[in-house]
C-alpha cells in the first residue's frame, strides 16, 4: 500500500490553514487543473465530521467520481477523510496541522490501495504514486498561496449540502 507524505510550511494561523483545507470552494480552486467540482453531499463551504462530498474530476484523461467522508476531526489540528466510493480500492487521507511561532506546518499523509491487484501495483510503480504525489503537492502549494495572500477571506461564505 503506497504512502505519500508531504509537509508544507504556511505563514498563516493554524485555524485559517485548517479551515482552508476542508473548504469545498478552496478545494475546487486548488484542483482546477483536474476540473474538480463537488456534485453531491457538501458542495460548498466547510465540510464537517460525519459529512461527505462527491467529487467529479478528470484524472489521467478519464472523468471520474469519488465520494469521501470525514471520519475524524479535531479542530484545528487534524481531520481524516476516507474514500467510500471511487476508483481506488481504498484510501485514507490524514490532514494534520502544527502551530509554530511563525505559522503552521500542514502535513498530508495519504495511504491508498489501488484496484486490480498486481495490475494496480504495477500502475503504482509506473505512474500512479508519482501522479498522486504531484496532485497533493500542487494542492498544498495553492492552499499556501491563498492563506499567505489573505485571499482566503473570499471563501468565507454560506455552504450548500445536496441530498
Specify the structural class: alpha+beta
CATH class: Alpha Beta
- Assess the beta-strand content as a share of residues: 35-45%
The CATH homologous superfamily is named START domain
How far apart the termini lie comes to 33 Å
Instruction: Let me know the largest β-sheet.
Output: 8 strands, antiparallel
Q: What is the 3D form?
A: globular
Identify the CATH architecture. 2-Layer Sandwich
| Rg calculated over all Cα atoms | 15 Å
Helix fraction by DSSP (H/I, runs of at least 4) = 25-40%
- Average residue-wise pLDDT: 92
User: What's the helix-strand series?
Assistant: EHHEEEEEEHE
Low-confidence stretches: none
Structurally, how many domains make up the residues? 1
* Topology, number of strands: 8
- Main-sheet strand order equals 1-7-6-5-4-3-2-8
Instruction: Quote the CATH topology.
Output: Alpha-D-Glucose-1,6-Bisphosphate, Chain A, domain 4
Number of helices: 3
InterPro entries: START-like_dom_sf
Organism: Fictibacillus barbaricus
Protein name: Ligand-binding SRPBCC domain-containing protein
Structure write-up:
- InterPro entries: START-like_dom_sf.
- It comes from Fictibacillus barbaricus.
- By secondary structure, the chain is of the alpha+beta class.
- The chain has one domain: START domain (Alpha-D-Glucose-1,6-Bisphosphate, Chain A, domain 4), CATH 3.30.530.20.
- The protein contains three helices and eight strands; from the N terminus they run βααββββββαβ.
- It has helices spanning about 15-20, 25-30, 115-150, and strands at about 5-10, 35-45, 50-60, 60-75, 80-85, 90-100, 105-115, 160.
- The protein has an eight-stranded antiparallel sheet.
- The termini are far apart.
- The mean pLDDT is about 90.
Amino acid at each position: 500500500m503506497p504512502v505519500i507524505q508531504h509537509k508544507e510550511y504556511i505563514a498563516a494561523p493554524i485555524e485559517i490553514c485548517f479551515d482552508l483545507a476542508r473548504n469545498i470552494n478552496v478545494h475546487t480552486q486548488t484542483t482546477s487543473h483536474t476540473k474538480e467540482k463537488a456534485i453531491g453531499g457538501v458542495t460548498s463551504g466547510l465540510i464537517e465530521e460525519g459529512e461527505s462530498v462527491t467529487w467529479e474530476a478528470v484524472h489521467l484523461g478519464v472523468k471520474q467520481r469519488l465520494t469521501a467522508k470525514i471520519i475524524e476531526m479535531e479542530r484545528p489540528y487534524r481531520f481524516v477523510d476516507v474514500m467510500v466510493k471511487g476508483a481506488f480500492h481504498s484510501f485514507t487521507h490524514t490532514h494534520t496541522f502544527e502551530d509554530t511561532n511563525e505559522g503552521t506546518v500542514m502535513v498530508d499523509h495519504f495511504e491508498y490501495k489501488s484496484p486490480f491487484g498486481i495490475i494496480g501495483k504495477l500502475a503504482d510503480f509506473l505512474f500512479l504514486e508519482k501522479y498522486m504525489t504531484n496532485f497533493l503537492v500542487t494542492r498544498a502549494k495553492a492552499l499556501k498561496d491563498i492563506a499567505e495572500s489573505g485571499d482566503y477571506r473570499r471563501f468565507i461564505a454560506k455552504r450548500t449540502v445536496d441530498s
